[in-house]
Amino acid sequence: MKADQIVCIHDANIFVEPESYSPSFRALYGTLQRILVRRAARIATVSSYSARQIARYLPIEAAEIMVLPNGHEHALLWDPSRVDINPSVISGAEERGFILALGSRARRCDRSVRRLGRRRLSRSLSRSA
Questions:
Q1: Could you give the CA distance from residue 125 to residue 122 in angstroms, rounded to a whole number?
Q2: First CA to last CA distance, the chain
Q3: Mean pLDDT calculated for residue range 102-126
Q4: Dist CA 30 CA 126 (whole Å)
Q5: How many whole angstroms separate alpha carbon 52 and alpha carbon 45?
Q6: Which H/E stretch holds residue 6?
């Protein structure tokens, strides 16, 4: 790796949720991240939260990490009237709400998706009662 590169580290999940990764992956990725933090011209990440987590586990201060949020503007341009699949193909969608969740089988992702789904479903049920 050249020393004049900017490196984006998305998060510190190998340290925060180590049980979600194999020991060999954690060892390799943790070593690689430590090397990158020392050699890169600048470290970037996607949120202030991620910057704090990275600083907690890697040899860098949070203030030294450039925060560049993930892009989302493309989602604001989405036009639901142009969808080819009619929601009525989902049996009972009109009578009851539904949650479509796409994710990973990793425990860290699964746990947060279930929490989010339960909260939204609970709010939806309480409004319809």
A1: 5
A2: 58
A3: 61
A4: 44
A5: 10
A6: strand 6-8
- pLDDT surpassing 90 at residue 73: no
pTM of the model: 0.63
What is the residue extent of each domain of the chain? Answer: 6-67, 91-129
The C-alpha atoms of residue 126 and residue 129 are separated, in whole angstroms, by 5
Instruction: Report yes or no: 30 and 7 within 8 Å, Cβ to Cβ.
Output: no
**pLDDT tens-digit profile of 54-66?**
999 999 999 999 9
Query: Could you tell me the two tokens for 36?
Result: 């990158």
What Rg do the C-alpha atoms of the chain give, in angstroms? 20
Which secondary structure element, helix H or strand E, spans residue 44, and what is its range? strand 42-45
Please tell me the number of Cα atoms within 13 Å of 23 on its side-chain side. 0
